[in-house]
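Give me structure tokens for this 420-residue protein.
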Amino acid sequence: MSSGHYNWSRQSLDDLQETWRREIEPTLRRNGVDLTTRPTYQDVTDAGYSGIAYALREHHDLTLSEFLATVGYEDAGTDADTDTNTDTATSASYQWDIDNESTITELESYLRTLDRRRQLAETTVRTKQSRLATYTRIYRDLHGEANLIERVADPGAESDEIRRALAVFDELNAKLSTDASKLRYHSDVSQFYEHLERRAKASFNPVESIDKEYNWSREEPDNAALSAEQAREIYAAADSRADELLVLALCAWGLRRNEVASLHVSQLELESDEPHIAFEERKNGPGTVALIYGVPELADRVDDLGANDRDWTGYLFPSPNANRDHITGETVQARFQRLADRADVRVRGDQPTSKMGRRFWYTTYNEAMSDLLENLDVIAADQGSADASVVLQSYLSEAERREYRRDYMRERLAAVFADA
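Here you go.
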């Protein structure tokens, strides 16, 4: 399908990202474009999709290069995008296209908080920026002025402001094509209002419960794990140690994609009896991840980087962008999906995501625990117990339980990756 078949101006940023993954990227691949590096504007134009660059510039304040960063293509430090008539959408230069200065000030303050305190990837912040801009522009078109801050500061205005916000989401509900996109818009807008509440600049969150007005589905259509065979095929499709390690980090260690992207040699403890990765901060706080499988591969990667790059900063997945130390979570996602494409792996007919690697880890761990309990049945029977979990909890030390669990998990992981 060529560019002419798309109503580019009607597509949200989420829609454009989905169109890129489902339509444009496969076309580029068929055209012989090397997708291990960022495609150029000419590549996209030659494939018949030049309209996406115009839509990004006019409706989302993004260059094609900036958009490609949101779907996993790192900027190698030079501008391969020949669409040179657009400016970078930084926080300072971003055109919100609304006239209310107090709203713009608070929006930019919020985005700086995301960048500085939460340390979100730049591409993630830009995506949120685009959604918030869309919301405020529709608000302005419907209600005359985007004076969001003034209205949520007045407790007596809550009922009227909920009505105004609902009118905006009626527009978004009609404009956006998927429930997932609608829910992401709701989440980003609601988080902005929560930010204002925490700073005592809002008395209420007018969109807090608006999602309940619609029948948007919260179930993830891809809420499935890779099978053992699919994980094996993706791993076998890797033709470099970096890609092999990326698959192991997702599937054999169960890391989140942002944790993979920022993995640093200082986090590794490979010489102890219980090799592990240490995290000062994870989603649920500090912790460690046991390296049950893949230590030799990890050690080889460290040796390669240390021997071949005199300026190596210690990140296991360094970025080709001179302004960034390591790749982003979006790049991890894109590389994983390219390997899945190469292996012709689909889950429920769709391209698998990096999150499915983490789900594979959990599924495999549960299966390993089932194997362990089945093998403890004999001991349980000798003890006169009908429940093998009693043996696990009451007759084995914590060290023994941990070793048993890891042995069974290691055996299952080896069956998937050892001969792939």
